[in-house]
Amino acid sequence: MISVKLVFFICCVTLDTIVHSKPQFDLLGGYDTFGICFNNCAQCKKLYGVYFEAERCAQTCITYRGKTIPDCEDVQSIAPFLISLDVSK
Q1: Would you indicate the residue range of the signal peptide (predicted)?
Q2: Measured distance CA(24)–CA(3) in Å, rounded
């Protein structure tokens, strides 16, 4: 007779091959900084809309290999990607 533990183990192995997750943690190098950087660029684009240059932000992620991660709540980290309003016209 098959034990409950063996059935549970087989189910877990089967489900693991079917369900794939995309963690932002790389086992060999720590956090996936590219993924975090790109996700933060997308979040800032959703937050600031047309006033945020997401393409430029993503290009910076590629150039610096994800070392400079933008934070939408930190103005200094996203200042290069913000489009200023010209209210004097």
Answers
A1: 1-21
A2: 36
Computed from CA positions of residues 24, 30, 54, 79, in that sequence, does the dihedral angle turn out positive or negative? positive
User: What are the per-10-residue average pLDDT scores of the chain (89 residues)?
Assistant: 63 53 55 87 94 94 90 94 74
Domain span including residue 43: 23-81
- pLDDT, residue 8, reads 63
Indicate whether 10 belongs to any domain.
no
- Is residue 40 situated within a structural domain? yes
Contacts of 50 (CB under 8 A, 6+ apart): 83
Residues 6 or more apart whose Cβ sits within 8 Å of residue 51: 82, 83, 85
The stretches of 1-89 forming alpha helices (DSSP H) are: 4-18, 33-48, 54-63, 75-78
